[in-house]
Amino acid sequence: MLKLIQNEWMKLWHKKGTWAMVALLILAIVGPGIMMKYYETKTAEDITWQENEQQVINSYKDMLKGDDVSEEDKKYFEEQIAISEYRLANDVPSQSEGSVASFMSFASNMLSLVTLFTVILAASIVSSEFSTGTIKMLLTRPMSRAKILTSKLLTTFVFGLFLIAVNVVVSALVGFILFGGASGVELEMVNGQVVEKAVWNDLAYHYLLSGGDFVMSTLFAFLVGSVFRSSSLAIGLTMFLSFMGGMIVMFLSKYEIVKYIWLTHSNLTQYESGNLMIEGITMPFSLTILAIYAVLFLAISYMSFMKRDVTA
């Protein structure tokens, strides 16, 4: 099995597209970082952080005067005003505009790009063998089809984890180089009190929750690529469901069946923000549904690959 994975890993890095994915991911982190540093420098020349916080207070107070402000928005505005007033009263500048932690938090949004690149690999790692005809050479080895497919699946996830590691390391380095000297703390409202935010714990939790969409999108693309032998279909269908999943869930929200669709639960970050796609769902329930679909996706992938005629 290990030799099969090593072989798949070597084949992966012999492709220019693999290096292009890594380069694009790094560029997607470094580019915005430079722009953020430039903007921060220009802003610092024109306004102090105290003046900026006062502007924030005035802005939210103006919003509160609106006639169509919802209770949820009103609560949010009042919390932001309280936080800004706390900063001014206690001389606590924000690090949101420049620090390693804040930049890494921003760069965590690139996990969607990591998921896209992993989906591309998952969709093509099996289907490309059929389109090029190399599947016949692969099956001549004294290895079972199950081991061959497992090696491809594991290689896909190892590559995805590698991209996540690149995201973390590069964002940490860029953040340290550009914003390493920044001071300040992040604040939040907890039970009506302004407290210091556990930035690193929140960041780790965000990465963990982002794994839901990463794993399910990868397994679904692997399924479509294995069953239909079409990488373009797998990539297109997976991306369509990723971008339109929210609308699909919203359209089906009136029906009970929506609670049992994996699209409703794959975005686990909804539990972080508190904005649940469907009322009444819980984290354990979502994890259970995702586990069931993961097993189903894998079962169909293996059954199709094991029984499909590949001699043609």
Question: What is the structure about, briefly put?
Answer:
This protein is mostly helical and 312 residues long. α6 (111-132) packs antiparallel against α8 (145-179), α6 packs parallel to α9 and α9 (199-228) packs parallel to α13.
Question: SS-based structural class?
Answer: mainly alpha
Flag low-confidence runs: none
Number of strands: 2
Give a quick account of the main beta sheet: strands, pairing sense, barrel closure. Answer: 2 strands, antiparallel
The averaged pLDDT comes out at 82
Distance between the termini: 26 Å
Tertiary shape: globular
State the helical fraction: over 70%
Radius of gyration: 24 Å
Distinct helical segment count: 13
Q: Which sequence of strands runs across the widest sheet?
A: 1-2
What's the number of domains? 1
Q: What is the percentage of strand-forming residues?
A: under 5%
- How do the helices and strands follow one another from N- to C-terminus? HHHHHHHHEEHHHHH
List keywords for this structure.
312 residues, mainly alpha, two-stranded antiparallel ribbon, 13 helices, globular, ABC transporter permease, transmembrane, transmembrane helix, membrane
Helix-strand blueprint:
Blueprint: H1 2-13, H2 16-46, H3 49-64, H4 71-90, H5 100-107, H6 111-132, H7 135-138, H8 145-179, E1 187-190, E2 193-196, H9 199-228, H10 231-251, H11 262-265, H12 270-273, H13 283-307
Antiparallel strand pairs: 1-2
